[in-house]
Specification:
By secondary structure, this protein is an alpha/beta fold. It has a single domain, classed as Alpha-Beta Barrel (TIM Barrel), CATH 3.20.20.100. Helices cover 38% and strands 15% of the residues. The strands form two sheets. The protein has an eight-stranded parallel β-barrel, surrounded by seven helices. The longest helix has 15 residues. It starts with 10 loop residues before the first strand and ends in an 11-residue tail after the last helix.
């Protein structure tokens, strides 16, 4: 297998002082118990070897934290590590200061590290963004267990988090079918010096489903994709446009990685071949102006697009 590294230079994660790879690794899939340790170790180390040095995990991702600790802790200085908190501590109520404090220590043990580069409150409701909860996050930063705190989510809670001085990073959905944040959340965050982590850059790959995947993670994005495909903007170039899986992954990933204000876009995979494919795509650089204009116009003019809010 031909191997080539990520060529896009590292980017600043807002004003945090942390630099991240433009293409990040979403570690949700590697938490599956169906994978062997050899498979997990291969894909994680291949990503870091090739310059995909931002790794995003969470306590809710199965075995993900433990496996990152097992397979990457000996390389801790070579990658930027983000995890999440606010839930998932046995015997402790979610969204409470004790849950934050114990959750941080739990993550450090699982990940076999002394610190997290980024710690994100994981899609918590706006009403729990209380002084006590945020003070617990600040305590973790002051103790050196966390370099920068952030918030992962959408909607009113995300807007409230952007305005809080305790946060230096946000994680939000940005993709071909989820563009509203590019005119609201992302520029607001950038204006306040917050780093932006883009999740779901492929939009759950709705093009892979010939019919609506009812009940599947991709259903809402499938509906948006279908509506965008009916617009004049999308139909205009239909004869010249490829719409196979390879072409869609290319346009979707480049759209997000090179969106203004995005520091890194996280893509999950268990396949080292896909790691290289994603790197090759990012190495092609930004989409053409024509492709970007088409994407923006198709999103803006799709039926019901005013209700195409960011998906949690």
């Amino acid at each position: 297998m031909r191997l080539s590294p990520l060529e896009t230079p590292p980017r600043p994660l807002g004003n945090s002082g942390i630099y991240v790879s433009a293409l990040g690794f979403g570690a949700g899939h590697i938490g599956s118990p169906n994978l062997t340790e050899d498979e997990v170790g291969t894909v994680l180390n291949r990503a870091v070897d090739l310059g995909v040095t931002f790794v995003d995990t969470a306590p809710g991702y199965g075995l993900s934290e433990e496996r990152i600790g097992k397979h990457l802790s000996h390389r801790r200085g070579e990658f930027v590590l983000a995890s999440k908190c606010g839930y998932g501590v046995p015997g402790v109520p979610d969204w409470t200061p004790p849950c934050i404090r114990q959750g941080v220590d739990q993550a450090l043990r699982r990940l076999r590290t002394d610190y997290l580069d980024v710690l994100l409150l994981h899609s918590c409701p706006r009403e729990v963004l209380t002084e006590g909860l945020l003070e617990a996050l600040d305590d973790a930063v002051r103790a050196g267990k966390v370099r920068v705190a952030g918030y992962s989510g959408e909607g009113a809670a995300l807007l409230a988090a952007i305005a809080r001085p305790e946060f230096g990073v946000i994680e939000t959905s940005v993709n071909w079918f989820d563009q509203q944040g590019l005119t609201t959340n992302v520029p607001l965050a950038a204006g306040r010096g917050l780093g932006v982590i883009a999740k779901r850059p492929l939009g759950n790959a709705p093009w892979r489903f010939p019919e609506r995947p009812v009940g599947h993670y991709a259903e809402a994005y499938w509906d948006r994709a279908h509506r965008m495909a009916q617009t004049d903007a999308w139909r205009a170039g239909a004869k010249e446009r490829r719409e196979d899986d390879e072409a869609w992954v290319d346009r979707a990933l480049r759209f997000t990685v090179f969106a203004s204000g995005v520091a890194t876009a996280i893509v999950g995979t268990t396949n080292p071949i896909h790691v290289q494919r994603n790197i090759d795509i990012v190495n092609r650089g930004p989409l053409s102006i024509d492709d970007l204009d088409c994407a923006r116009a198709a999103f803006a003019t799709a039926e019901g697009s005013r209700d195409f809010h960011g998906l949690v």
